[in-house]
Amino acid sequence: MENCLFCKIAEGQIPSAKVYEDEHTLAFLDISQTTKGHMLLIPKKHVRNTLEMDEGLAQTVFARLPKLARALQKATKAGGMNIINNNEEIAGQTVFHAHIHLIPRYSTDDGLEIHFTAHDSDSSALNSLADDIRSEVGQ
Ligand code: 5GP
Ligand code: ZN
């Protein structure tokens, strides 16, 4: 897609530190290096985010994660990693070409903070919401 940063990276028009490439996917180091080795995995085909992927593309892209994650962990000697996919601005997406972050972790104060806040929920509200989602997913 014209004027898409990650399409330009996928086409080699903008340089990147590539770590993996095949017919349908590309992985390269994120310029921000939230932690050392912070990597992005993208489909070469332009889609906005996971909400726009069909199952075939998702299968192709997400299937690459285990081997990339293992390679990243071995190369950086990180203790673990967070794999994050931001969808839409409200969720922190700033580049609107689908991508998955692989962020190696070295310590709890290494530059990435993730905090899940627990809220009270009653089981009838949860069941009703689960019903709504099941119906959307066709079950
Ligand atoms: P988002 O916030 O959309 O989930 O992530 C976009 C990521 O793209 C950010 O972590 C940002 O650092 C990275 N990024 C933005 N521009 C470039 C660039 O030109 N090259 C590389 N390698 N990464 C970029
Ligand atoms: Zn694109």
Automatic annotation (TrEMBL):
Outline the extent of the HIT domain.
5-112
> One Pfam match, by short name?
HIT
Positions of short motif Histidine triad motif: 97-101
Protein name in UniProt: Histidine triad protein
Please name the source species: Streptococcus pantholopis
User: What molecular function terms (GO) are annotated for this protein?
Assistant: catalytic activity
Fetch the SUPFAM superfamilies from UniProt.
HIT-like
Gene Ontology biological process terms, A to Z: nucleotide metabolic process
State the InterPro entries in the record: HINT, Histidine_triad_HIT, HIT-like, HIT-like_sf
Q: Which residues form the active site?
A: 99 (tele-amp-histidine intermediate)
